[in-house]
Design brief:
The chain is mainly alpha-helical. It has one domain. The chain has 3 helices and 2 strands, in the order H-E-E-H-H. A two-stranded antiparallel sheet has the order 1-2. Strand 1 and strand 2 form a beta hairpin. Helix 1 packs across helix 2. The longest helix has 16 residues. The two termini are 24 Å apart. The model has no long low-confidence stretch (mean pLDDT 89).
Length: 101
């Protein structure tokens, strides 16, 4: 399974790389909410997603992770959806919108 890293991001400059309060360095990343602004959470989300889903029956790749990144940026930029932070809802949205970018 591929490991998606910060260096694999297409747009790393669009994310914050310092933890935003009240996050702490030992905060568990599998929490209920996901921050689409914080780079370390986005990379973690992408890793979890590409390693637990397939694309047309095939394992996902780093390129798939970059596709997820673009979808997350689309979600973050949509003023009507930018409030969506629940991890399960974000996963559902990415799946439902896979072919939109």
């Amino acid at each position: 399974m591929p490991e998606f890293k910060k260096s694999d991001l297409v747009y790393p400059h669009l994310f914050q790389w310092n933890r935003i309060e009240p996050d702490s360095p030992d905060k568990h990343l599998d929490g209920y909410l996901v921050s689409l602004e914080e780079g370390y959470e986005v990379v973690y989300f992408i890793n979890k997603f590409i390693n637990s889903h397939t694309s047309n029956g095939q394992p996902m790749s780093i390129a798939s992770g970059q596709h997820v990144e673009k979808l997350l940026l689309k979600l973050r930029g949509d003023k009507t959806l930018s409030h969506m932070r629940a991890r399960a809802k974000v996963v559902q949205w990415v799946i439902a919108n896979w072919n939109t970018v």
